[in-house]
TrEMBL record:
Protein name: Methyltransferase type 11
PANTHER family: 2-METHOXY-6-POLYPRENYL-1,4-BENZOQUINOL METHYLASE, MITOCHONDRIAL, METHYLTRANSFERASE
Domain of life: Bacteria
Any GO molecular function: S-adenosylmethionine-dependent methyltransferase activity
Domain Methyltransferase type span(s) in chain numbering: 55-144
Keyword Methyltransferase: yes
Keyword set, alphabetical order: Methyltransferase, Transferase
Methyltransferase listed as a keyword: yes
């Protein structure tokens, strides 16, 4: 089996999932449609001040940052990304170019720090989580949301399991992703001293024409050329998977959307 050339620098930005890819905006929109309902539900559970300062770290295509500005019209909503090309023309938000791995914010800057579908793809994820905790004011909230691929690795259908494992391997090799990292998100927040820990999950399936199905399909399609180049799958595998997904008799759990949140304790 082929592996990533050591001369190529791994990482999300330079990968087949980078924002420079022609299909990336469409793929991010499918992620938003799948994940936004859970994110909105979580924010509905948080007691926030009248004029909260909210950081949406790694805001992607910006649908949730835009929703935050409407849900909290008196809030200061800062949306960041290493590539902000999709965050223009969203009313009510402030956009900052920001590298979560290397850039910082002053301590106690925000009432809420929200991070979604980002940390699983960054090798510095634990350090970023440590930093993000310090950016939250005492009494404020850290909300971490991410994706786990564990259901697909346990799939009953052998073809789907093969394709899922290839995608899992590609993410690990080319980006440094850990697509099981989110499985214990509540424990990660608890280890950092947060209190009032809560969590919710949402199962994503394929073969059912759901938003999660569209997200899985668009991601797999974007990964296809790299999967073939590295010999992780053949064109016959991809064609057979497309037929299986289109079958009226096939549907299976593919991933889990996971949300976890905790409150930074008040001083004293």
């Amino acid at each position: 089996m082929s592996t990533i050339d050591s001369a190529e620098e791994p990482g999300y930005t330079n990968s087949y999932l980078g924002d420079q890819h022609a299909g990336q905006l469409m793929r991010l929109r499918t992620l938003e449609r799948a994940f936004d309902p859970l994110s909105r539900t979580v924010f509905g559970l948080l007691p926030l001040p009248d004029k909260p300062a909210i950081l949406d770290l790694g805001a992607g295509a910006g649908s949730f940052a835009g929703w935050l500005s409407k849900r909290y019209p008196d809030a200061t909503v800062i949306a960041t990304d290493i590539d902000t090309r999709f965050l223009t023309d969203i009313p009510g938000i402030r956009v900052l170019t920001h590298n979560a791995a290397t850039d910082d914010f002053p301590a106690a800057s925000f009432d809420v720090v929200h991070v979604r579908a980002l940390l699983c793809h960054l090798s510095e994820r634990e350090d970023i989580l440590n930093k993000a905790t310090t950016w939250v004011r005492p009494g404020g909230w850290l909300v971490i949301e991410d994706v786990s691929l564990r259901p697909s690795l346990r799939a009953a259908n052998p073809l789907f399991r093969k394709v899922a494992l290839a995608g899992f391997t590609l993410l690990e090799q080319s980006i440094g992703s850990d697509m099981l990292w989110a499985d214990v998100l509540p424990d990660r927040l608890r280890e950092r001293g947060l209190s009032f820990i809560g969590h919710r999950t949402l199962e994503g399936r394929i073969g059912d024409d759901s938003p999660a199905d569209a997200f899985w399909a668009s991601t797999t399609a974007q990964a296809g050329p790299t999967l073939l180049k590295l010999g992780l799958l053949t064109q016959d595998d991809l064609d057979a998977m497309a037929r299986l997904r289109a079958s009226s008799t096939f549907t299976e759990a593919a991933l889990t959307f996971i949300s976890a949140w905790g409150q930074v304790p008040e001083r004293g």
